[in-house]
UniProtKB/TrEMBL annotation:
<keyword id="KW-0614">Plasmid</keyword>
<dbReference type="InterPro" id="IPR013321">
    <property type="entry name" value="Arc_rbn_hlx_hlx"/>
</dbReference>
<protein>
    <submittedName>
        <fullName>Plasmid partitioning protein</fullName>
    </submittedName>
</protein>
<dbReference type="GO" id="GO:0006355">
    <property type="term" value="P:regulation of DNA-templated transcription"/>
</dbReference>
<feature type="compositionally biased region" description="Polar residues">
    <location>
        <begin position="16"/>
        <end position="27"/>
    </location>
</feature>
<feature type="region of interest" description="Disordered">
    <location>
        <begin position="1"/>
        <end position="31"/>
    </location>
</feature>
Amino acid sequence: MAIPKAKNKAREESLGNRSESSPSTKMFAQANDKATRLQLYVRDRQLIKELKLAAVEEEKSISQLFEEWATRWLEERS
């Protein structure tokens, strides 16, 4: 999904074209407190298919499933 030019221009203006800031600093400056977008790239198409089916069975979004899994995984690490 492409970002409209007007949105992109407004975003650039809000960043103030700070050349000293790293790309990650600019990205995190725009993050919303309620949610953050994460893009995952998965090579295994079968895994994605199974994940989608599991999400439908659980009546949850893939995002919710990932968040639950990541939370449990981080708790187990500590």
